[in-house]
Amino acid sequence: MNPESVNAYSQRHYGRGTPSRADEALGQSEIFLEFQERLSRVAPVNRPILLLGERGSGKELAANRLHYLSKRWQGPFLTLNCSALSSSLIESELFGYEKGAFTGAAQRRVGRFEAADGGSLFLDEIGNIPMEVQEKILRVVEYSTFERVGSSESIDVDVRIIAATNADVKALAARNIFKQDLLDRLSFEVLIVPPMRERKEDIILLANHFAGRMAVELGWTEIPQFSLEAVRALEGHPWPGNVRELKNVVERAVYRSDSPRISEIVFDPFLSPYENKTPEIETGGATAEVTASNLNDLMARPLKEAVWGLKVRMLEDALQRAKFNQKKAAQLLGLTYHQFRGLYRQYRENED
Ligand SMILES: Nc1ncnc2c1ncn2[C@@H]1O[C@H](COP(=O)(O)OP(=O)(O)OP(=O)(O)O)[C@@H](O)[C@H]1O
Ligand SMILES: [Mg+2]
Questions:
Q1: Which one of 76, 116, 175, 238 has the largest count of C-beta atoms within 10 Å of its C-beta?
Q2: pLDDT in tens, 123-158
Q3: CB pairs under 8 A, 24+ apart, for 4-8?
Q4: Rounded to the nearest 5°, which phi and psi values hold at 300?
Q5: How far apart are CA 261 and CA 224, in angstroms?
Q6: Ligand 2 is an ion; residues with CB less than 5 A from it
Q7: What span, in angstroms and rounded, lies between the C-alpha atoms of 84 and 237?
Q8: CB under 6 Å to ligand 1: residues?
Q9: DSSP three-state, residue 231
Q10: Are 11 and 19 in contact (CB under 8 A)?
Q11: In the 8-state DSSP scheme, what is residue 223?
């Protein structure tokens, strides 16, 4: 199969296809640049790589970059997301099958390993691969050979495996859910994609990038700009969904905005505008929530720092819920406007 038909194959059969080379990984924080540096260094080394990272942090983008910076860049780059596939489906997707191998196998089908010959195969969500299939993958990693389902003919391939997961794969191996010897072989190098909260300096850079792209998509002629409050809100958010969450939040803010000045940021699209709560109850509820979710964190710090941390969290939360209307935020916090301004000034000075 030549690379062109493989790419077409990839697009057709694997839904999302592969990210294009134009999908650049942006970032200028030291942590991100260090990560990119490690990635670029290992990319041309012909060994399997394991990418670890939280959801939405950029594992797939990193896998793509590993391929294009390797000597295999002109070869195919194929992906298999193993997360929701049964054992037999993963097996036939990876290794292909012969005509008549099982009911419904009307004709021979080439699997990803064969199609990725001379290139790279990205195995996403490897924590979900059933044991029997792990065994078979181990053989390919070890001897570069496998058989199609329903065939005894060995097929030799030259494929570099890039694996990824956001699961604790070492713990899975300790519990015998993941084969330790496969993990040993896949982890010649382990690259840990940094989460968004460790690269706060990149938030606004990425936000501007996604906002600009969204504006172009919407046919805007003006470049969107975030208000100071919006910038504060973006910078203060913990981003559990990482870059994907940031992209969604920013794109939503842009399309909802009536002007290129983006001032309203909605982090949770599930928040219902119809919930009929009085402001008092709302304040109480949110306060309890903020306190609870960070209490352990805060309790570990010195008292003064913890109290300040709580104030900041509550202030940011109130601002966000009040859509950055400071009078309303003061109300939500049970403060006079004057008291609120005092706190807000302190907050701004400390954050700068
Ligand atoms: N550094 C970056 N610069 C620009 N865009 C990025 C960056 N990192 C990730 N993205 C974008 O964020 C989104 C999520 O990235 P990606 O799919 O690579 O994450 P992932 O770790 O594979 O997520 P999941 O665990 O959910 O599969 C994609 O749209 C990707 O293009
Ligand atoms: Mg992914």
A1: 116
A2: 999 998 999 899 999 999 999 999 999 988 999 999
A3: 6/76, 6/78, 6/115, 6/116, 6/119, 7/76
A4: -80, -10
A5: 6
A6: 59-60
A7: 30
A8: 23, 25-27, 53, 55-61, 166, 206, 243-244, 247
A9: helix
A10: no
A11: P
